[in-house]
Amino acid sequence: MVVLSQPVPENIAHIKTCKPTSNLFTGIPVVNLSDPDAKNLIVEACKEFGFFKVVNHGVSMEFLSKLEGEAIKFFKLSQQEKDKSGPPNPFGYGNKKIGANGDVGWVEYLLFCTNPELISHNASAIIPGISETLRCLVNEYVCTVRDMVGDVLEMIADEMGIGEKDVLSRLVRDEKSDSCFRLNHYPPCPELQALSGRNLIGFGEHTDPQIISVVRSNTTSGLQICLRDGTWVAVTPDPTSFFFLVGDSLQVMTNGRFRSVKHRVLADSLKSRVSMIYFGGPPLSEKIAPLSSVMEEGEESLYKEFTWCEYKKSAYKTRLGDNRLSYFEKS
Ligand code: GA4
Q1: Average pLDDT over residues 83-112
Q2: Which of 179, 279, 322 to mutate to test the pocket of ligand 1 (most atoms within 8 A of CB)?
Q3: What is the complex's ipTM, to 2 decimals?
């Protein structure tokens, strides 16, 4: 008997798919921030994977659930209501379209500008149609996670023997630090079954342009990272933990010692995934170059000189999956 494959449903026809992978990432470095070994573990993880999981961070589950609950409340509004908070240019509500250059995914999201000087004036996270409660929770969350990122960057500087302990952390703690925050909602996609075993892309493969990003999600899986050998592996979700990802800027500042990790999110057919991500970037005028203290004698920079503003401008002209750093690599 000939089995005819079903036609791909129209609502997902324009979204990319990928081959399923059964590889579960069992080697994820788990860092307990109060462990004396933490610094070493973090640096090794940044070199090998550009990725690690932080536990025992002191952020209460109650607070995390509150923010997640407010996010769900927003995503449950009618499409017409949610559209009043968009389009994301670049901040606001977005549905399926990612960035401005034709990328799409099975995702809807809220993208907030969370620069510290805006947060301190309570002006951050102002998106039309967003509840006061959500705005305040986002501000509080970003301040908390930013502090944790600052501590982690100080541990990295210490472990790498960088004299000035705050050389990295000051970039995210600075009043002018250019950071953003996104709430992603990956709705369940029952039509996925029609894809004859292929997976639907929620958020396509990419690296983050900033210094470091922190992901926290509910219990629905979907996040995958790409290992050095090009294999994609699935990360087991853990709503009680934070997942740290090295961004392009930190790869440059360590002259390639750290890897900015390629990652993506797949859609689930039955469960919705809600994630929150803080992206810690430097001030716009900051020069992004290898730190002299990490370079060995005679070592040359792998990259041309650029500021975060130049990198960001260039990045926003690219497609999601492009290798954005390649334009800044020395030939
Ligand atoms: C990837 C990391 C962050 O989510 C983000 C994304 C941004 C966007 O969604 O507007 C970009 C993407 C991200 C990199 C390339 C450009 C810009 C979409 C896109 C195609 C907010 C960021 O800073 O860069």
Answers
A1: 96
A2: 279
A3: 0.99
The answer to whether the beta carbons of residues 42 and 152 sit under 8 Å apart is yes
Quote the CA–CA distance of 223 and 264 in Å, as a whole number: 6
Span 32-75, pLDDT tens digits: 999 999 999 999 999 999 999 999 999 999 999 999 999 999 99
- Counting atoms of ligand 1 from 1, which one is nearest the CA of 180? 21
Give the closest residue (by CA) to ligand 1 atom 9: 99
**What pLDDT was estimated at residue 12?**
87
Calpha distance 117→146 (Å, rounded): 13
The residue with greater pLDDT, 77 or 5, is: 77
pTM summary value? 0.96
Which sign, positive or negative, has the C-alpha torsion 95, 78, 131, 270? negative
182 CB near ligand 1 (under 6 Å): yes
From the list 243, 263, 275, 224, the residue with the least C-alpha distance to 20 is: 224
| Whole-number Å distance between alpha carbons of 128 and 317 | 26
For ligand 1, say whether the CB of 225 is within 6 Å of any of its atoms.
no
323 lines ligand 1 (CB under 6 A): no
279 Cβ closer than 6 Å to some ligand 1 atom:
yes
Q: Which uninterrupted H or E stretch holds 17?
A: strand 17-18
**Six-digit token pair at 186?**
């990956």
Cα(207) to centroid of ligand 1, in Å?
9
State whether the beta carbon of 208 lies less than 6 angstroms from ligand 1: yes
Active site residue 146: no
Percent over 90 (pLDDT), the chain: 84
For 204: left if phi > 0, alpha if psi spans -120 to 50, otherwise beta; the answer is beta
Rounded to an integer, what distance in angstroms lies between the CA atom of residue 225 and that of residue 50?
Answer: 9
